[in-house]
Amino acid sequence: MKEVNNRHPLTLTDLQQVTALSSAAISADGRYLVYVTTRVDMDHNTYRDDINVVELSSGELKRSWEGASPKWSPVANEIAYEAPHNGDEYIWICEIDSDVKRPLARIYESHYFMGHLCLKNFEWSPDGTKIAYVSAAAAPPAAAAVKVIDRLLYKTKGGRGRPAVTDNEYSHIWAVSVKEGVIQPVTDGSYNEHSICWSPDGLQIAFVSNRSADPDNNQLHDLWSVTLSTGHITRHTHHFGTVCQPVWSPNGAHIAFLGTTGQLSTNDSPAEDTQLYALAVADNTYQCLTRSLDRR
Asked: At residue 175, what are phi and psi to the nearest 5 degrees?
């Protein structure tokens, strides 16, 4: 049999065959694996994210649907994920065994650019009863015919449908009950909060915020936490530099985070290597764990 040679120069159509994989995670009971496939959608000039759930014992693909950022409930076979609903972005819940999907909370995204390592994320509470998420209070107003630029960081970085010029909306922390859908504001005010994570006891949420006098003119993002029952906010670092992506230790004694210590930096491509730090919650002392590694 003569071998057929299908080799040819790369074309735009070939990009549709390229699939990226991400967000792999195993359910709390170990039965399922979730992951995301991302493909080029040539018809709509964008990318399409699909959530896939595989039964580990058989390797069978059990569920597949359009959505992004899937996260397992810590106590049930439910996945929270992001997807559109009536033209707006929402957090959804999917019950894997019954395949029931329902919108839970609308996300209003501010287009203010806080850096590539900033996470406007959502997270399950440790007991699975609530989801905390980052959102503006309302949708940015429609662009006027003439826009007056009065901010230093007026560009959004664009991409995937985002406008070129930023808005003046602030990103805050919200919590929604999974069963009832009751939404509770956790933070407010004239600062942005982002990159959230729950404490193991579910009483606090750690976050990152630039609360300096002129946030547009520096990258002094510090580590904070808020107590949900009282709204009391605790500051853990003071002009550390740029704190990114905190994660609470399982025993609640430490918060690990990525960071750079330069007081003058950029939110785009900082020259300084990003290092890994661990902060003791009891006294807010911290140590760098990766100083000997000359790499990011």
From this structure: -130, 135
